[in-house]
Write a structure and sequence with these properties.
337 residues; Rossmann fold; six-stranded parallel sheet; globular; DgcN-like_N; Putative NAD-dependent epimerase/dehydratase family protein; P-loop_NTPase; DgcN-like
Length: 337
């Protein structure tokens, strides 16, 4: 998949920033690839990019419109179709991370055909995956896990990969969701893989490396989420992590989209170790990454200090404070680069 940039990011009329996390993630990590956002009336999300109409985006050099919104089930709302057709008629390719294939919608398919434009469905791939085998492979791996979905697992993995490379480790980021694929240019959207092959896809994504080489793997869902735990379990077994980082959002009491109470960080640590031992007997937690956006800086520092003391682990906000303390823990546990 070679998706041309600059990007124009389509946010539709999503109700909050979390529903636009694909677009926001692209801006945070690939802002230089983006020239603006386009929104429908009632949109409550904002990437901070200039608002442009689709025509203005095309006139300013956009080459692809990214459908930068997500929703439960990965469906494409019917009232978004006209905007996608307009983008195709304006000469843009269109890329989507939703489950529904763009070309399966007749109006979109016809617009792409008549304009000679490309449609990219990054949640779908042409790879054929084997079932997972669980055989120990060389190289070292870190997996981001979560107390919930949408708590910062992708940001944690990207920030950890960056910090490790800056420290002198040889590290690579492995994308397991649509936004990560947009950011890295490679990956597998695991929630679109047939269940029997999720662990095999995770093995394919993080193959054998030299023993001193690291892969930092984007997490998905949560072992405690009744909707998405199946994907999380397959990723845990297939990625075979030597270490994991627990990601958390401190203001939630229920898991996103359901009535299930949020698990504690300790429950996530214990369950991840218990389940992860199947393919990685020495799996261990090396830190806690917290999305403290809802806290003042003073409160965030106090909260993180409390977590660090309680769990005897480094605790940080990857965006606010960086990942250096967790990289320090890697050095202590596994050796310097």
């Amino acid at each position: 998949m070679q998706i041309a940039h600059p990007y124009l990011l389509f946010l539709g009329d999503v109700p909050d920033a979390l529903a636009a996390k694909t677009a926001i993630g692209i801006v945070d990590w690939r802002r230089d690839w983006c020239i603006g956002q386009t929104r429908l009336d009632g949109c409550a999300a904002d990437t901070g990019l200039p608002d442009r109409t689709i025509q203005e985006g095309a006139q300013n050099g956009a080459r692809t419109m990214i459908v930068g919104a997500v929703n439960a089930g990965g469906l494409l709302p019917g009232h978004w179709v006209d905007s996608i057709v307009e983008a195709l008629d304006a000469g843009l390719d269109v890329a989507s991370g939703l489950h529904v294939k763009l070309a399966s919608i007749p109006a979109i398919h016809e617009a792409a055909e008549r304009n000679g434009r490309m449609l990219f469905d990054v949640r779908h791939n042409t790879e054929t995956f084997a079932t997972g085998k669980g055989t120990k492979r060389p190289g070292k791996r870190i997996l981001a896990v979560g107390t919930d979905c949408s708590v910062g697992k992708k940001y944690t993995a990207l920030a950890m990969d960056k910090a490790m490379n800056e420290r002198g480790y040889t590290s690579s980021f492995c994308a397991t969701g649509q936004t990560g694929v947009f950011i890295s240019g490679r990956g597998v959207a695991l929630d679109a893989v047939i269940a029997d092959f999720i662990s095999g896809a995770a093995e394919w994504l993080s193959p054998a490396r030299e023993e001193n080489q690291w892969q930092v793997i984007e997490g998905q869902g949560s072992l405690f989420h009744p909707s998405f735990a199946g994907v999380t379990m397959g990723l845990l077994h297939g990625s075979q992590p030597d270490a994991f980082i627990v990601c958390h959002e401190p203001t939630r009491t229920k898991m996103r989209g359901v009535e299930t109470p949020l698990p504690s960080i300790q429950q996530v640590i214990d369950m991840t170790i218990a389940c992860g031992k199947l393919t990685s007997p020495d799996i261990r937690c090396i830190g806690i990454a917290v999305n403290t956006a809802a806290l003042t800086e003073e409160d965030a520092r106090s909260y993180l200090a409390g977590l660090s003391a309680e769990y005897d682990l480094p605790a940080t906000d990857p965006v606010r404070f960086g990942m250096e303390t967790i990289v320090d823990r890697v050095s202590q546990e596994f050796g310097a680069p």
